[in-house]
Amino acid sequence: xxxxxxxxxxxxxxxxxxxxxxxxxxxxxxxxxxxxxxxxxxxxxxxxxxxxxxxxxxxxxxxxxxxxxxxxxxxxxxxxxxxxxxxxxxxxxxxxxxxxxxxxxxxxxxxxxxxxxxxxxxxxxxxxxxxxxxxxxxxxxxxxxxxxxxxxxxxxxxxxxxxxxxxxxxxxxxxxxxxxxxxxxxxxxxxxx
Length: 193
Ligand SMILES: *[C@@H]1O[C@H](CO)[C@@H](O)[C@H](O)[C@H]1NC(C)=O
Ligand SMILES: *[C@@H]1O[C@H](CO)[C@@H](O)[C@H](O)[C@H]1NC(C)=O
Prior knowledge:
- Strands 1, 2, 3, 4, 5, 6 and 7 form a seven-stranded antiparallel sheet that branches.
- It is globular, with a radius of gyration of 19 Å.
- By secondary structure, it is of the alpha+beta class.
- The chain contains six helices and seven strands.
- It has a single domain (about 25-190), classed as Roll (Pnp Oxidase, Chain A).
- Bound molecules: 2-acetamido-2-deoxy-beta-D-glucopyranose (NAG) (2 copies).
- One 2-acetamido-2-deoxy-beta-D-glucopyranose (NAG) binds near residues 134, 136 and 137.
- One 2-acetamido-2-deoxy-beta-D-glucopyranose binds near residues 134 and 136.
- Its main location: secreted.
């Protein structure tokens, strides 16, 4: 009787957890990468600095990001940038960057009580080149960013904001114990949203 009670309790707890936020299985690495990227409203972007005091050194900064309106992720990390911004100066000199995104920026890790540095608090690191979004892709980039960042349309109109994205060349995923894993851009983009 006791055992049955425990079983029912366990089932209840598991159901409650699954019902809260469910993430892809940790061995579905490409799917996990797409999940973390889509769930992220912001990321850290590391550039090679052009500032005199740290020239040539890594410089990490915070940026709003979106890979599509909620439920319509494409995997393409879109950004809204201004040439006035300090990291954008770096990008103008060298567009090679790395973006880090983590479920620590969502409710998931907090609810599960996973520390942001725990391998269970899933994260993705992307590297590649920042490209300005071309005219055919601007409408989508705008919808992707403005739907998730409603303050953006009101940002100072004289700052020369433009839509950009990361052309991803390498992807690392840490979503479980046993070390970081890699996914190719082909595997990543093959995942159905
Ligand atoms: C714009 O970029 C998209 C995605 O990279 C590409 O498919 C499309 O051909 C490009 N269009 C133009 C006009 O360059
Ligand atoms: C994006 O990166 C891929 C792989 O490095 C490269 O082949 C491609 O030319 C890049 N696209 C653009 C528009 O720079």
